[in-house]
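pasting D-alanine--D-alanine ligase for the record, 350 residues
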Amino acid sequence: MTCKRILVLFGGCSSEHEVSLVSASAVIANLDASRYEAIPVGITKEGRWLRYTGPVEAISTGEWCKNTAWCTPCAVALDRGANLLMLCGGLPRSEHYDAVFPVLHGRNGEDGTVQGLFELAGAPLIGCGTLSSALCMDKDRAHRLAALAGVEVPKSFAFGRDAAFDEILKRAGELGWPLFVKPVRAGSSFGVSRVKEPLALPDAVREAFQYDSEILLEEAVPGFEVGCAVLGSQTLITGAVDEIELSQGFFDYTEKYTLKTSAIHCPARIPEETAGHIQEAARKIYRALGCRDFARVDMFLTPEGRIVFNEVNTIPGFTSHSRYPSMMKAAGIGFSELLTRMIELEVPQQ
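structre below
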């Protein structure tokens, strides 16, 4: 059996650059070597695309781009041939790949921009496409579509940079305190603030606008966050539901990657029937937003048992201990097998 060549794209011009490096390193290390050959391509923080040939472990540490012997400048050929163009000694040469697996988080990678590039090039793309990636990154529009599909969403108001602060303050009062201020399009809780009183609102608004041109004021939903991994396009498989236990604050960037004062329980400590309702809501949201191949759907479970949509991560964390692989592992699908299933959705073995 001939190995399929999978272009694994990592890094990116994003505040989540470092998270992508860790995820991509784990993906490359856990690919089934009897089926797949990884073609690592890194994007530096400055936006340079580099074909990487060095050790896998240097990716997660950020050392990968510091050794020029490991990196060759490259670009994606747009002639619908699934090729990379590389400049070696000033002369171009091409390298074919069978599919691209973007392991990018946040802006300029998880938001449909990269997906559009590879769809334009006619390359098989592992993961959500251009439209669904863009929709899922946009919290306001994702909530509107989920609501149309019959899923409960938080009360919220969206504002652009030209909005008068008096109007923002007025809408905040309608939502009540505490509330959340979020960039409409950002990941890993960057720019998100939990605001307890009106005096703290101006700083929270300024912080959110640092990450996007639109912000969202959103009610604080009581209860706790639950998540559900979804795998597939036509037939959907859901992983075990997980639960985030917080001792203080909210699940911000620090907590997501250090768990200093929080814990993740997988499976969640909830009745089996409730878990089933959450999995059904995840499938409904996944389909409403046009997702394919894989995504993690995050929701809130209130004390009364209401399931409220939060967001969809179209490229969730992919370390062996990340939430998505952990949910699938609890459902009986190990990390290496999970990667194989994802790839085979777009590149079936012959």
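The domain at 156-219 is CATH 3.30.1490.20 (Dna Ligase; domain 1).
The first strand starts at residue 4 and ends at 11.
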